[in-house]
Amino acid sequence: MTTDSTEERVLAAVRERRERVNAAIDEDLPLVAPERLWEASRYLLKAGGKRLRPTVSLLTAEAIADVPPLSVDYRQFPALDGGEVDVMAGALSLEVIQSFTLIHDDIMDDDALRRGVPAVHKAYDVDTAILAGDTLYSTAFEMMADTGAAPENGLEAMRMLAETCTRICEGQALDVEFERRRDVLPDEYLEMVESKTAVLYGDAAATPAVLLDADDAVVDALYAYGINSGSAFQIQDDVLDLTVPSAKLGKQRGSDLVGNKETLITLHARQQGVDVDGLVDADDAESLTDADVEDAVATLNEVGSIEYAREKAYSLVDESKRNLEALPDNEARSLLAAIAEYLISRGY
Amino acid sequence: MTTDSTEERVLAAVRERRERVNAAIDEDLPLVAPERLWEASRYLLKAGGKRLRPTVSLLTAEAIADVPPLSVDYRQFPALDGGEVDVMAGALSLEVIQSFTLIHDDIMDDDALRRGVPAVHKAYDVDTAILAGDTLYSTAFEMMADTGAAPENGLEAMRMLAETCTRICEGQALDVEFERRRDVLPDEYLEMVESKTAVLYGDAAATPAVLLDADDAVVDALYAYGINSGSAFQIQDDVLDLTVPSAKLGKQRGSDLVGNKETLITLHARQQGVDVDGLVDADDAESLTDADVEDAVATLNEVGSIEYAREKAYSLVDESKRNLEALPDNEARSLLAAIAEYLISRGY
């Protein structure tokens, strides 16, 4: 489905905007007193990241305004109501929220590494990491309050941001709850994925539409684009874990099969009567062998579970591309479609 | 300074509004799925609390609108621009933020009890407490987005709320930083107290003014009222720790002298050349005796440190009452003045 040129186009679009996003981080999140707090708050944002969500946001603004990519200053972007909007601040707000959730998630999961550097609660300490996350949380709302959009649009963007954050928390809670349950339905899993991962893509895509005064139908379509492509990304991630060789994955293939992690694949297999808990004997990813995984994959293929998940991811991407038809047909829209395809072609 | 009738009036005002605030919590924060998350998020709010900040907010609305206390539905409150505003949602938003900060602070300080019940991270676990705090954080912004105020006023209230939260985080970081430093200046301490404690009072008082479309001068004066009275409360708390008998305090008198906690009193004493670290020998509050405290208090009185802090608290309350002159002269305003006095007459 994805061609090399799709990937190249997406990576170029991300790269071309990354410098501007990084510069905006330094402008809008300066290192001020109390320095240790702000240093810890900026730490993960400064450690890197593809800036995929801000790229989606910035491309959406360009698609709505129907301007050539990178032709207009993101800080003074022409709104449809004649005003000027800092769409970069809106895009950055979502990246800052993403950073806050990663910092708190890493505490909860006790993950030691993130983006190749120690997690904030390891580089500093748990207390500082909690507080750094809390600081980013409100900073994101401060950014969204200062886009210069018409007040009703600015307020709506703030409301959407707040709802998005609440849903992310609910998604995280569902994820934890599902580890304890063995009767999760595929639809419940999709709801969890939507809350935990996809709403932030939905908000990243819809926020510029709100700020720039686009019609409600455009706002809704872009939100759906983000939800559909974000959900597809997460589902395909589960497929790739089972189908891509370990060397290419950068981790043991099939590691999701160890422990109590449910995926759309295992949930489907359970419904087909597969003894999912007995698929592999290994208790940790280290003792898992490729032969174990081959056997498990064969069983999952027999009942069509991997194909079920793959088809779900591809149909969600198709749906997300149809959502984009609410936008003018232009280069930025074409790049947004490419991003949706790219999201299911890679495992990052 | 405070008479019994002041205290009675304040307690009556708080009591008369508490039922409505508690009912609003159930309306605006219902126990929905995922239930464990929302149960943990509501836990501390449902455990009680005086509802002092919401009371300040609701009284401010009544003072601005110049209506008799409790005569108008807080959910449909008349704004000066002719609209109707849910000032209860605004008041509750601040209470929800307060609850989030307590949940995360209790994790950081590893405090086991809060409001007579186990802290959320003890009643549940640390991960759930982090997530419950995060959930309340965005819920507060959702509430503030839905007051029905004119969009420019709603947006401004959201911006103020975000700034308030960032300052609370900064105040918490300064508090931690100051425990490691021995060269903190009294003005730095006042800045910390303002950020950590007083801005939430400032926001509670100013939010209704913003939502109801009051003049900027009224907004600023009410914010100052909250900052001044909130700071006075915290400073007086330090005075009471040294001057009120243990039995009445409900904890060992002078317990602030143990450990590395700085107060305006100890910082002033340091400036006068007192060996603050040698004031008491005890290493914990349990081994502290009243005789130790008497000696320490005598030393602090000699250099005027306790009187310095007490005068600072009283002058801040006087200032906060002058701030109220921006409001019409009515019963609600008189109750706000009484609350400022009450804040320094009690140690809660």
From TrEMBL, chains A, B:
Single Gene Ontology BP annotation: isoprenoid biosynthetic process
Pfam families, sorted: polyprenyl_synt
Cofactors named for this entry: Mg(2+)
Keywords: Magnesium, Metal-binding, Transferase
CDD domains according to UniProt: Trans_IPPS_HT
Stretch forming the signal peptide: none
One GO MF term attached to the UniProt entry: metal ion binding
Keyword Transferase: yes
Cited Gene3D superfamilies: Farnesyl Diphosphate Synthase (1.10.600.10)
Family: Belongs to the FPP/GGPP synthase family.
Protein name in the entry: Polyprenyl synthetase family protein
Species: Haloplanus salinus
